[in-house]
Fold these 2 entries.
Entry 1:
Amino acid sequence: MRAYVARRLLLLIPTLIGMSILTFGVSNLTPGDPAFAFASRLASRPATPDEVAEARKDLGLEGGLVPRYFRWAGRALQGDLGISFSTRLPVRPELVERARFTLQLAVPAALLSLLIAIPVGIVSAVRRNRLTDQVLRVVTLAGASVPSFWLALLLIVVLAVKWGLVPSAGRGGAESYLLPVLTLAMAPAAVLARFTRSAVLETLSSDYVVTARAKGAREAVVVGRHALRNALVPLVTAMGTSLGALIGGAAVVETVFVWPGIGRLLVEAILQRDYPVIAGIVLYSGAVFAVISLVVDLLYAVIDPRIRLVAER
Amino acid sequence: MRDEHFRIRATGALGRFQLSHLRKIGFVLVFSLVAAACGGGDDGGGGTDQAAQPAVNQVLTVGAGEDQFVREGTSANLGVQPVNANIAETLTYLTPNYEVRPMLAERWEFRAPNTWRFFLRPNVRFHDGSPLNAQAVKTTLFDRVAQQRGGGTIKAGPNSAVVVNDLTIDFTPTAPNYRVPEQVVHPSNVVYAPGTDTGNKPVGTGPFKFVEYAPKERLVVERNSDYWGEEAKLSRITYRFFPDANARRLALEAGDVDVVLGVSGPDVKGLKSRGFEVMNSPVGSYQAIYANILGGPPHDLLKEVAVRDAINLAIDRRQLVEGVLEGQATADQTMIPPQALGRYRNKITGTPFDQNRARSVLDAAGWRPGADGIREKNGRKLTLQLISGFGGAEVHKPVPTYLQSELRKVGIGIDIVERPDSASYQSLIDSGSGDLFLERGSQNDANVGFLPTLLFYTGGSGASAQYTKLFAPGPRFDEILTPAVTEPDADKTQSIVADAMHQLIDVDKVVIPLAGLFQMYGMKKTVQGFTPHPSTISLRWDTVSVGTGR
């Protein structure tokens, strides 16, 4: 097991290097001059050639793409992700700070989505093709399809503007978490519920479930102990993907709810052609997904003792 | 066993209860959500019709746009730009009508050949208690700007500022610049207390003092009780940043903020119907098309003045303003805000709407309607690429579509190319890839010659090479505009620039103005004393107060 984990962690290095090359290359080849964007923003009008030249020098954009990549990569190896083109502050502390805000939403949203998804999925599977199942399937389909910006605005209009129950946006007390967490949790809850339903349905028709029923086990035990546990492996994979997306930052939700997380930072960075921040966020997201993927793989072995993790030789 | 049995029965009963009631509750909830979302028009707490008494707590929350403060370097501008919290002040002030008024400088004078002398206001103190004097102005304004390449718009050099006495300072630009008092109104030229950390804790002379800043969330300032002018009415202002315009409006409707900056046209009616005030500033921005008159094939069709003339004639600006922009603009054709041109604004006549004449002009130029209605000449179709636009394509919608339909009526085809932000738009300017370039621009200082010089002038330095290589009208325009560069008198400069704009718009037709735009501010009716400014970065908050309503 240790060898497996070590190998997976080592694999992170070439993955992140590949991602950094791709990100650095693509963002630098995107149309638009970050020096112009920076200088124009400062001037509140199209920048003059002098202002653009000044900005180019300030932002370290002089020289070719390859030498700039190696300069950046050399510093990144020492933990220095460069200086933001927009704020002129170091990227790494900014990323850490923003990731903290994102986690404040992502963790409760992930928990809430699980709390909704698993019972809904089980009920839907157990009551297959009955009215309850039909209704839940429609609701989960709607939940998975509704765009988050629309849901966010709808929740603001109803709960903040009409009823005045919660603030419309911004970080504050516990009540300020309600709308963004609800919005964030909706799509993964719907997707996971559908996943749970199909996974439980599949196991409900398995021989061991039939055997358990034949032996007179109560339905709750059949579903909870036999069906659900065996359905967990695909479910954990889906959870991992959802959690990765949540921790990676939800740009729309963070923008609408004025939540200064990673997603919002990425949107701002793209619009400002803030290459160091874009590269930093991609590295962060890549690392998050890789770690979650590793955790998911490790969980397989915990959930299903038949699965053994070994390092390939 | 009994316990377990009981639990199972209880759970079953609860389950049945939940199922039947949850269905009802769910139905009611969904119905309420939809009904509430679809409803509207009622008073959403927009305050009262009258605001008679001042509130005990003079506290205001402002909903601003994206937090774009720079935190480090010579450009650090926390609390100054783009949200001006009135922490630090400039030597001169830009009024909403584009007049220059004294601020930290009581008066100023031009001293030939190229020096401006500023006489500072006495008895002014920074928030840290230190006095405003010529040395502070030298260090934190002129020497700071001199560190920027080219010395900023004012052309400051390391030896430009000379302290004459405690309250007098001379400024000599590195190149002739007769527009300095008009330029230093811009908040990038504020004066700080010496030693101020301008990116983290700005200290100025303004009516409000810095309190706290949470990046991307809020900036808080409080009243400066030792202000040199009339003390601010508000004790505290919190600026909250809402990048999304819808969220900003909803925050106002929810009562989370008292004022929002940058209301969009479609939101105006809704806000007013819910009992909120929407105030318009005088015109300070414009929407216009620049014609690529110097492009190579395939972007060389606009070299023909007749085509530019026809485009101008084919656009119904009244319909554009009333129908497309929902009345939230004016049909001005000056590009530069009319009031900035003073009494010379009428020198720019603009082009009347006349699609029959547009067709005649094109007929006379040899452009004949093709089978698909688009005109042709020598086997070439009159189809133009419209690039939308500076400031991002989103802010221009649906104007490009309207232009496309209007121009098609006279046989001109338009392909719309949208760019999501100014940087990617600029890359098309750089490469000259396009025929018509749709822009929004703002006048943020009192130097009326700045934009025409930056974008179209080839007679001296300071122009944008990328713009002039596509849009420079040529020697006649340069000849008219050149005296403005060396004219210290503001009135004469207005006259010269108006002549140049007449040449640019009415004669050369390089710029096709569409509309004059104003800034729109939404607020609760309890907010009093707010003066809408066409340049958001010059807003003043010291006259604002909060009433209690009826």
Entry 2:
Amino acid sequence: MTDVQASPALAPHTIADGHLRAGTATGADASDRDALVEQLDSLLERYLNTLDMYEKAQQMLTSILSSANFNNRSGLRYGQDHYDERMQATRTITVAGEESKAAFSVSAPKDAPTTSTVTKDSPSANATEESPTGDSPQESATEPEDPKVNNASSSDRYSSTDPLRWFGILVPPALRQAQSSFVAAVEEPIPEIATLIKDLRKQEIDIGRLRKQLKKL
Amino acid sequence: MAAPVSAYKDRQFLAVIGDEDTVTGLLLAGIGHVSPPPDSQKNFLVVNAKTENAEIEAAFDKYTDERKDIAILLINQHIADRIRHRVETYTAAFPSLLEIPSKDHPYDPEKDSVLKRVRRLFGE
């Protein structure tokens, strides 16, 4: 009978914290506590390591983007007035893994602009270079039929998906430099930082949970 | 508890809210995407001195809440400052929100909401 009376009083306690067994054995509590503290220590250590990686990736991004400074000496603006309103993304994100520990990566098709930009500037060189890609599936997928564009210019103007083309054929080298810097940023630090932020969030939740458990002891 | 895989496997685009140089640079890298007409939705917003904060917030809502095809939202840190309360209270799993530096505004760890959370974690 006494057992029956005792159990309702203990029930909320034991249910609230699975680590406590009937709330009597202090020795078991202490070892539970030690185990939790140890677990918290290793979580915090891992967290600081991830944080270090995050800060390094941010520094890398900062250095890449600061070298992307586009110093325009021609007096022309290379901005949103030139954007092609029919643009289609050539660099896209792939999310892998579970929601809580998702990993981001950037995938680019073969005709996306690369860090090693083409240095040839003459129109004839570009025309010969691009003709093989003219009927690639990428091009047909991204180019809806547009009757307003005349045939002569459409084959030449949209034979490449390189956004550098929006700004003309003879673009300043600084703009090419800016492009390759931003490609480098999108390919490496950006997906890395996104992954690390997710990882940090998850670890913060784990740490918070563990701290709560410790407080209850 | 966890969202089904289908909830984020379709998230394939980067979106950006930034100054003109940042947006231009990212579009040059091939992230720009305009959906087919008639809605012609862009995945970028160019912010200049004349842009209202309400417009920035609207874009933020669109990329974080309405659209289900954005995996990562990039925002210049100095623009995130203008809607700081929104950035700091953003907790959704997707899209991932990233504050990035710009040419005129280098990265400031003091303002980074990720590092603010870290300070909170250790300040308790």
